[in-house]
Here is the input.
Amino acid sequence: MIDIQNIRAQFPILNQEVNGKPLIYFDNGASSQKPQAVIDALVNYYSKDHANVHRGVHTLSQRATDKFEAVRKKTQAFVNAAHDHEIIFTRGTTEAINLVASSFKIFMEEGDEVLISAMEHHSNIVPWQMMCEETGAVLKVIPLDEKGQIIMERFDELLTGKTKMVAINHVSNTLGTINPIEEIIYKAHKVAAAVLIDGAQSCPHMKIDVQDLDADFYCFSSHKMYGPTGIGVLYGKEEWLNDMPPYQGGGEMIDTCTFEDTTFNELPFKFEAGTPNIADTIAFGAAIDWMNEIGIENIGAWEHELLEYATEKLSEIEGIRFIGQAEKKASLVSFLVGDIHPYDLGTLLDQLGIAVRTGHHCTQPLMDYYQIPGTVRASFAVYNTKEEIDQFVAAVKRAALMLG
Ligand code: 7TS
Here is the structure.
């Protein structure tokens, strides 16, 4: 069992009033809050250890490098990658996907296909559109059923010898659907397609084992995992990463450089041009430690309890329509009440101190599929409580009465 009050006490930001009411923070899908250990790691680094990494013989540079590289190992262990050089630091999930979509172009020929699903975040749509535009490859979309689940029969039909890349989110940020990525990866490999998993919404909530999954690429963002913004991860199998050209050129990523010819550094540095985000990476390491201390299974179990509780309580509201009713869901609820515009509901909730996200959640094609302008989304983290959900449900009821 986890001690929620103890956990909450570690998040200074939660201890405040918003619009005269105690803050209820249910926008964790967009970004989670940071425990004191992560804030301290940032302050300590800049107070004691800062210097540029990988270049100096001096003590501070070595200390910063050791701390920075230790996070690569920590991240490797966190997702059970086979090698630490398969962990590439990026600005976040978005940059990780862009890196792959850009570098993977060398494997693409005109008429090849990229498969994505209808529930993808814009960051797992647009980079592939750009890639297809440049290479003459074709983007294909796997449709969903009413509940917001991938129709696997359609996936089977769309997956052919032409498919070179399958790019799918593990968990949908709008629907909460947990996709059957094991089966998707297994089937994609049978036609020799590579698979990129957008794990932005899964890594905060569940144990990820990239070797067990056999994912070719797996992307995630620190800021949704109690860590800082501006740092994220691309895991890639070394076979792919070795064969892919660099994404950006600059310092750190070269082996030798002349005006005539440049050779590239080994993994992971080939993909990390320029001074990296040292401070946030080190604080991300503190976030991983923090999650490990609580235990990812414990985090997931508590959040699942919150999900079930919220779903049950919200169901009592007249005219509520849940968007995303998959059998397997992560801890978020997306919904509409009657004809009330999500933006109006969100604004009233904010006046009551409750932070939710409203709108299309960067999944406009998905909103078009459901023919809705957007949803209200409450997404939970380990520090949320059932009492907060009670207050939230009461507030939605009140707002619905006022707006209905
Ligand atoms: N993929 C998914 C599934 C996401 O939910 C997000 C961010 C991203 C990619 C992009 O991550 P970033 O860290 O590079 O920005 N999702 C959300 C959200 O649901 N609300 O705000 C951001």
User: Anything to note?
Assistant: The first strand starts at residue 17 and ends at 18.
